[in-house]
Amino acid sequence: MRFLIALMLMVTPAVAETVNGLKTVDEFDGIAEEEARSVALFEEMLKVIEHPRCLNCHPAGDTPLQGDEMQPHMPPVIRGEADFGAPGMYCTTCHGSENVAFVTGEGSIPGHSPWQLAPVEMAWVGKSPAEICAQIKDPERNGGKDLAALHEHMAEDGLVGWGWEPGEGRTPAPGTQEILGELTQSWIDTGAMCPDA
Amino acid sequence: MTTLTVNGQDVTIESEDDIPLLWVIRDELNLTGTKFGCGIAQCGACTVMVDGMPRRSCVTPVGSVDGSDIQTIEAMDSPEAKAVQAAWEKLDVPQCGWCQSGQVVSAAALLQMTRQPTDEDIDNAMAGNVCRCATYVRIRKAIHDAAAALEG
């Protein structure tokens, strides 16, 4: 019996899977039509893009959001000219190069170097999937990135990666940064198509 | 082990690296002018200068500032700090006083960066310094007063 189970495991084809709420690229192999597969891949990427760990620092206005509830940042801080706070109250007044657990109770203050807001032209809060898709492909609104650089941002950037290691008191982004990178690459390879709405 | 310069003195700290800088300043170096308020970077009472920039010492592990130059309220003697302290006395800003060392450090830091701040500049820079006695009107007025004195 044990031999049979082992044999069954060996002959079972590699199955697609969902990791921490994010589908891997293999899950999309069943979508034959390339454009539809590309759109489906982007919609999976959106699970990360629209997660509070990402949206909180891609706000539409001049105030960052915070926490899983996406409340306005407390203390009340502003974006500032360099997306880094106001003179005298830069992000680094409180945020260090790594998460710091509070010593007086539960929770932690998030940190990473660098720690700053995405520029306002990269705002995602309140945008539709189609709008976000068009925006992140547009070098005028994505910091001058071509698709290869966009993949690098998703797959390699340290501040993006913080989204999966956010410290006590914050839910990590779905999946892993590696899976997001693979989804992004497959989306690009299938034409980087955008949803209609 | 962490090596710091605190108020011009080289010091070696034997505490664990994850001990907050505030604990070191108050309990090991006996510099009690810097206050504990909330412990979670929400009130600003623990503000000190780290390498010339304001920093909440309650959420700063001492190991993360190894080699840094720390200045506490006891040694704030820049022209901006002196102008702030003079304005604070002139306008009798403090009430209970608990938050005031943090307020003075933040105000002096603001004036180092913005010589003639507007009300908006002051509100933005001081937003993280909470005063339970609500002396905000006097704080803002005193910062303007200090800015005017610096302008001479």
From TrEMBL, chain A:
<keyword id="KW-0732">Signal</keyword>
<protein>
    <submittedName>
        <fullName>Isoquinoline 1-oxidoreductase subunit</fullName>
    </submittedName>
</protein>
<dbReference type="InterPro" id="IPR036280">
    <property type="entry name" value="Multihaem_cyt_sf"/>
</dbReference>
<feature type="signal peptide">
    <location>
        <begin position="1"/>
        <end position="16"/>
    </location>
</feature>
UniProtKB/TrEMBL annotation, chain B:
<keyword id="KW-0479">Metal-binding</keyword>
<keyword id="KW-0560">Oxidoreductase</keyword>
<protein>
    <submittedName>
        <fullName>(2Fe-2S)-binding protein</fullName>
    </submittedName>
</protein>
<dbReference type="InterPro" id="IPR012675">
    <property type="entry name" value="Beta-grasp_dom_sf"/>
</dbReference>
<dbReference type="GO" id="GO:0051537">
    <property type="term" value="F:2 iron, 2 sulfur cluster binding"/>
</dbReference>
<dbReference type="InterPro" id="IPR051452">
    <property type="entry name" value="Diverse_Oxidoreductases"/>
</dbReference>
<keyword id="KW-0001">2Fe-2S</keyword>
<dbReference type="InterPro" id="IPR006058">
    <property type="entry name" value="2Fe2S_fd_BS"/>
</dbReference>
<dbReference type="InterPro" id="IPR002888">
    <property type="entry name" value="2Fe-2S-bd"/>
</dbReference>
<dbReference type="InterPro" id="IPR036010">
    <property type="entry name" value="2Fe-2S_ferredoxin-like_sf"/>
</dbReference>
<keyword id="KW-0408">Iron</keyword>
<dbReference type="Pfam" id="PF01799">
    <property type="entry name" value="Fer2_2"/>
</dbReference>
<dbReference type="InterPro" id="IPR001041">
    <property type="entry name" value="2Fe-2S_ferredoxin-type"/>
</dbReference>
<dbReference type="GO" id="GO:0046872">
    <property type="term" value="F:metal ion binding"/>
</dbReference>
<dbReference type="Pfam" id="PF00111">
    <property type="entry name" value="Fer2"/>
</dbReference>
<dbReference type="InterPro" id="IPR036884">
    <property type="entry name" value="2Fe-2S-bd_dom_sf"/>
</dbReference>
<dbReference type="GO" id="GO:0016491">
    <property type="term" value="F:oxidoreductase activity"/>
</dbReference>
<feature type="domain" description="2Fe-2S ferredoxin-type">
    <location>
        <begin position="1"/>
        <end position="76"/>
    </location>
</feature>
<keyword id="KW-0411">Iron-sulfur</keyword>
